[in-house]
Amino acid sequence: MLKKARVRGPVGRPRTRPDAAAGDKAYSSRGNRAYLRERCIKAVIPEKKDQAANRKKKGRNGGRPVGHDTELYKERNTVERLINKLKAWRGIATRFDKTPASYLAGLHLHGAMIWIKDLTKTAA
Q1: 73-110, pLDDT tens digit by residue?
Q2: What is the pTM of this model?
Q3: Three state DSSP letters for the chain
């Protein structure tokens, strides 16, 4: 699943190596972390409690605890909330549009509507 991720740049081939990849505890497997590590991508994924307990149970052979940047993880939550706002629009949530261009236009339209709504909330 992580192999499909791409980061678009302004020109040329899309970047395939972001600075960091954020995910929830479901993506904290050893395989995902190893894949990100070999590509020099910082993993911003909290460790599951059972994984931490198993690591501690092994003592010195269990290895170091995983690093976790809480500030970057908070940004992941912001992005996730925006995606949930976009999915509130039925056409986007169900991917009803047949062409990628009309789907992208729907994303832009609903994104603009969310932005305007947030501007009116802060102005009031």
Answers
A1: 888 888 888 888 888 888 777 877 788 888 888 888 98
A2: 0.58
A3: CHHHCCECCCCCCCECCCCEEECCHHHCCHHHHHHHHHCCCEEECCCCHHHHHHHHHCHHHHCCCCCCCHHHHHHHHHHHHHHHHHHCCHHHHCCCCCCHHHHHHHHHHHHHHHHHHHHHHHHC
